[in-house]
Amino acid sequence: MTEQTARQKAGELTREEVADYLRANPDFFIDQDELLRSLTLPHDSGRAISLVERQVHLFREQRDTLRRELVELVSIARHNDRLFEKSKRLLMQVIEARTLNDMAAAIDDSIRGDFGLDAASVLLFTDVELPEASQGALHVVSPSAARERLGSLLEGERAVCGQFRESEREFLFPDREEPIASVALVPLRHDELAGVFAVGSCQPGYFDQSMGSLFLSYISDTLSRLLPPMVQRHTAAAPVTDMATESR
After folding, report:
1. pLDDT value, residue 70
2. Name one Pfam family in it (predicted).
3. pTM passes above 0.90
4. Is residue 153 in a domain?
5. How many domains is the chain partitioned into structurally?
6. Angle 100-109/51-96 helices, nearest 10 degrees?
7. Are residues 129 and 232 in the same domain?
8. Percent of the chain scoring above 70 in pLDDT
9. Considering the domain boundaries, does residue 199 fall inside one?
């Protein structure tokens, strides 16, 4: 015979049965003031406290926990609000840009100035030689070279964050005196892959896979739609420029 069975035969209740009853009857202690005063619980200080004191202590702990969570949520909301304003300013400048280099300059200034990062890079994948290329944050590379150097980083549509291999970082951010240690990269893809947008920090571990990339994705979505027609305009303008040069 088990201890629990013996107690049940003797008419005694187990702890589990008492706990289940109180859960099913949370109003049990109403009009039981004397019983509440007689119940005591151990406290961290070592002294015994009443059940009411214990409840008050638990409610205060819950209040403090909720207060900390609220402060954290407000801090996150303010941070996201600042990110939204910075992203909005950048996107307005990108939309108003008339040339590829104007766009690249706006991105470079915003990422390093507003966002406080160390580098920005817009890599366009094309085999066509553009009249404006490889200035500031703008770099033009062939699709084959991009696939060879970046490989699986181009397969997805979402941002990829991490430290990356040294060869990948050098390809994304060429001609830098201070090397980039941590990178967030988003493929520029609307119908087809047009390039990549990358931001970098000299601080190792600044970007990791747990970081949110919502605002980075907003920027890359806009670039994915603006860059292809802008590249076409520059490509169409190149022969006209050559003809004008030849006629002089």
Report:
1. 93
2. DUF484
3. no
4. yes
5. 2
6. 150
7. yes
8. 77
9. yes
User: Residue 156 falls within a domain, yes or no?
Assistant: yes
Residue (of 142, 107, 120) closest to 200 by Cα position: 120
First-last CA distance in the chain: 111
Same domain, 216 and 163: yes
Note the pLDDT tens digit of each residue in 156-187.
777 888 888 888 888 898 878 888 999 999 88
Q: What's the rounded Cα separation, in Å, for the pair 247 and 88?
A: 44
Residues 101 and 223 in one domain: yes
Token pair in block for residue 176: 């830098």
78 domain-assigned: no
Domain that residue 221 falls in: 97-238
Tell me: do 112 and 180 sit in the same domain. Answer: yes
Q: Which tens digits make up the pLDDT trace of 102-146?
A: 888 888 899 888 888 998 988 888 877 765 555 668 888 888 888
Residues 226 and 166 in one domain: yes
Same-domain check for residues 40 and 138: no
Tokens of 18: 């008492």
